[in-house]
Amino acid sequence: MERALGAPKVAGSKGERARAVQSASRSRWGETETVMAARRLNRAAGTLAASVLVDSAVEHYRGSFKNKAMFTPLVVAGLTLAMSLHGTADMRPVAHRARDTSYLLAAATGLLGTGFHIYNVTKKVGGLSWQNVFYGAPLGAPMAILLSGLLGFCSERVRANGRQRPRRVFNLPAGETVATVTALGLLGTTGEAGLLHFRGAFHNPFMAVPVTLPPIGAGLLAGAVLNGGGRTRRLARRWMRLLTAMGFIGVGFHAYGVSRNMGGWRNWSQNILDGPPLPAPPSFAGLALAGLASLELMREARDA
Amino acid sequence: MSDDPRHAPRARHGRAPDVFRPGGWVSMKEYADHETVDFVIVGTGAGGATLACKLAEYGFSVVALDAGPYFRPLEDFASDESEQTKLYWTDDRIVDGDNPLQLGSNNSGKAVGGSTVHFAMVSLRFRPEWFKARTKLGYGADWPIDWREMWAYYTEVEQALKISGPVNYPWGPPRPRYPYRAHPLNAAARALARGCEALGIGWTETPLATLSAPRGLAHPCVYRGFCVTGCSTNAKQSALVTWIPRALSAGAEIRDLAMVGRIETDANGLAAGVHYHRQSKWHFQKARNVVVAGYAIETPRLLLNSANDKFPDGLANSSGLVGKNLMAQANQAVWGEMDEEVRSYKGPPSLAITEHWNYEDEGKDFFGGYAYMSQGPLPQLWANTQATAHGLWGARLVEEMKRYNHVVGLKIVGEMLPQEHNRVTLADELDQYGLRIPRVTYSWCDNDKRLIDHSIAFMSRALGAIGTKNIWVQEDDTCHLNGTARMGDRPDSSVVNADCRSWDIPNLWICDGSVFPTVGGANPSLTIQAIACRTADRIRTLSRLGEIRLN
């Protein structure tokens, strides 16, 4: 992911990272680690933003952009993605005002979008019914851009710590805070996947995977926050890597789901809209990357 | 050779069409006419196909014949209402009585899969009390089957067809969750919902036999709206794409374009097999058991046409009830226009339903009940309706058709009471096979009329309550046919027992909508299939007990 985003050398393999740390002067190594942690969060926020950008583009195109406000998540997610790329590439140990502003904008968009979606669902006949939560505007979807904004904002706060230890965001311990946000995000995203997979009647057994693995991941993150042992963190780290992989493999499953509609991929222009959403599963990957970043922050805070 | 399935049979030479793959075939077991099979089944609709599948899966040898063609939905079905009339049974018949039935689209099918190939997919359970309508509700006749037993068989059929239904069904005793979720509502369905909410009654998404998620090689519904003209995507879970492929893989033989003209009985008065017409010749298939599943007109017609010296009034007719107690269902509608576009043709035609008046008995001046559903008439049907039921022609008809996209309508499926003088008899005229054609006599009784009046008044209020303009009433329409070989507890008051076994000839069975003693206010297909599943289980049980002729 890092390489794909064109990040500078430092963000590369473990070896490169080690060399970068070695080359930093003794007095600055703490700053470099801080920046690395922040960049990991930029990367997580960017992954989420990318998922939101493509997903809202497809879904709102499907809805014919009937309301002009439906362009908002495209603009905001696009901006958030650009800022996250910028942050991932940025080695400076100071928060960036433009990034900060755009992350706050993303969070606000998420809240506002949720309001719009609730309005859309409840104004339909039947109100808050299964029919309307299945087929009306998805209630949980705008939360993804809210999470992207929150994680990005956390990233800037982590970055602003400089050499200060332990690192804090909003005057709370950084790793624990990000882990908590991530765990809640995982649970919410599971709810969204669960709702839509229930709509699809779990007709394929693999549809149970994204409602089973992420809550366990959320539990492991919570465990890491609460008991903080190295073993729990290591298990949580492996689980976050599993969830990252799941998020990208999910695109493949959704592509298969698209093929099972009338006309298959030959009829892509219709079936991409009617089949399972291709850009949705990577939102799990985005959260799992944030989870990894939070575990690293906790490790540094506790094992230092 | 012609590939038109209406001219040359397709299920031959050890193979049958694979309905899921264009041009594909599946292997099919074949029996010679002189081989005596365990069961020969006449008809492959909701009753016959279901029974053929279940019996074959239970290990019996089965041949199922159908007078109609073996269609390949992916290739043979056009998005064209006129072309698709090929799915209906439009052979010569005579209709009379005070309210002659209009036969064809709403009540027949001539194809492998029967009328399920073009049914509206509405898959409702009966209200439990209807199975004891005489005892509990004071009208009609009791069924010899307990509703709790039916509840289990309904579940079996709902699973087999992957019915898409609401998460919670608002009426009746609890039922298991429908296997697939309900489809999204179209604007016509939302209009029904708004009307119900305005009048303070319940509504829900209609349980439908069309897929809301993939299933094997069948795709989910694409909401093109050509449902009652034959689904060309296989989303519709007709007998043709569900029970029949299962029956074939379990070893049953399907014989298309095979019109059964007569059931032969032997010296002991038992059924010996059936005479059928296929490829310009009459054949005779020997069988240990004969099942008639030709629906409420062809079933009694075949039994009556099979009269012989031993059974001069027709087979299974010692009660004199074969052909009697024919029950259609009331199908009146109220139509109007909305200011906004409705485009009711999008998606399955009946996405929303209220069964309020099936389950509520207070405030009725009639026996029985009715459901009403949202509607989505295709343009040609709509023009016909405007020309006939609404009496528009010329410039007025053209003007009306311009407002087609704004039309909204509600239509009932209403219970009609069994009456002996509503019946199927034989006319003297002969059809293309040289068989006497049926005469179908039908008159509404006062109770039927009161039910219709109640429904029209209520639906008019419902449409009025949501701001519908130019409301008008379609007063004369019926759908579905049942009765004519009712089941019961006694040989003198019924044709078959609860197992669909005829009282008179123990190896002659009837398994379709003919056996219904009452029809209720619900589309019958799910109940027909549930009865067929039950019959198959009973046959298996009876055969283990040695009470069925199998040698």
Percent of residues in helices of chain B comes to 10-25%
CATH class wording of chain B: Alpha Beta
Helical residue percent of chain A? over 70%
Mind telling me the CATH superfamily name of chain B?
FAD/NAD(P)-binding domain
Mean pLDDT, all residues of chain A: 88
Decide which structural class fits the backbone of chain B.
alpha/beta
Q: End-to-end span of chain A in angstroms?
A: 28 Å
Kindly report the average pLDDT value of chain B: 96
Poorly predicted sequence stretches spanning 5 or more consecutive residues of chain B: none
Distance between the termini of chain B: 39 Å
* CATH architect. name of chain B: 3-Layer(bba) Sandwich
- Report the portion of residues of chain A in β strands: under 5%
Count of separate DSSP helical elements of chain B: 12
Q: How many domain modules of chain B? A: 1
Count of runs of 4 or more consecutive helical residues of chain A: 11
Could you give a short account of the major beta sheet of chain B?
7 strands, mixed
Q: What structural class should be given to the helix and strand makeup of chain A?
A: mainly alpha
Give the spatial strand order of the biggest sheet of chain A.
1-2
Question: How are the secondary structure elements laid out?
Answer:
The complex is a heterodimer of chains A (304) and B (551).
Chain A: H1 14-23, H2 29-62, H3 72-89, H4 97-123, H5 130-135, H6 142-159, E1 168-169, E2 172-173, H7 174-199, H8 209-226, H9 230-259, H10 268-274, H11 282-303
Antiparallel strand pairs in A: 1-2
Helix pairs in contact in A: 2-3, 2-6, 2-11, 3-4, 3-6, 4-6, 6-7, 6-11, 7-8, 7-11, 8-9, 8-11, 9-11
Chain B: E1 15-17, E2 25-27, E3 37-42, H1 46-57, E4 62-65, H2 73-76, E5 94-96, H3 133-137, H4 147-160, E6 164-165, E7 180-181, H5 187-199, E8 204-205, H6 243-249, E9 253-255, E10 259-265, E11 271-278, E12 281-292, H7 295-305, E13 327-330, E14 333-337, E15 352-354, H8 356-359, E16 370-374, H9 379-388, H10 394-402, E17 407-414, E18 423-430, E19 436-441, H11 446-464, E20 469-474, E21 478-482, E22 508-510, H12 525-544
Parallel strand pairs in B: 3-4, 3-12, 4-9, 5-19, 6-7, 12-22
Antiparallel strand pairs in B: 1-2, 8-15, 10-11, 11-12, 13-21, 14-17, 14-20, 15-16, 16-17, 18-19
Helix pairs in contact in B: 1-6, 1-12, 4-12, 5-11
